[in-house]
Design brief:
HIT family, subunit A; 152 residues; alpha+beta; binds zinc ion
């Protein structure tokens, strides 16, 4: 049994049980971040359980990077930040890479720098979106994904 948190989330998507799920692309899944301390925080989960970009077969890797840029542009258009922060992190046994995309705005952290300075505040219960707020976030991101994917 795989003990990977990202694979578990993907299984929830496949079973229709992940309320944060936004869109399936060729190489990954777009989801809204659990906690919205940074409004519009979204993720792009790699379909393959792999740790590093160089472990991916080259054509899959190129498609994954291309789609990540499309997802990031949609997040930008949907949530209108000053700047996006991108991080490719791993989680779970075997370390499953997934992009964190943070729409950053001036003054959204006590001092300039990565969001991780917020520590436990990032995961505070008050930043879990309620059902209506979550639907709104997903709808805004889906609208922008539609626009970008139709242009292809
Ligand atoms: Zn995994």
């Amino acid at each position: 049994m795989c003990d990977c948190m990202v694979c578990e989330r993907i299984d929830w998507i496949k079973n229709g049980k992940n309320p944060y799920f936004v869109r399936e692309l060729q190489t990954g899944y777009v989801v809204i971040g659990d906690h919205q301390r940074i409004k519009g925080y979204s993720l792009f989960l790699c379909k393959q359980h792999a740790t590093e970009l160089h472990e991916l077969e080259p054509s899959f890797r190129d498609a994954f990077l291309h789609e990540m840029a499309v997802v990031a542009e949609a997040v930008y258009n949907a949530f209108q930040p000053d700047k996006l922060n991108y991080e490719l992190l791993g989680a779970g046994r075997g370390l499953h890479m997934h992009w964190h995309i943070f729409p950053r705005r001036a003054g959204d952290t006590p001092k300039p720098g990565p969001v991780w300075q917020l520590g436990d505040e990032l995961l505070a219960e008050e930043y879990l979106p309620d059902a209506a707020a979550l639907e709104e976030l997903k709808m805004r991101l889906n609208v922008e994904l539609d626009k970008l994917l139709e242009e292809k």
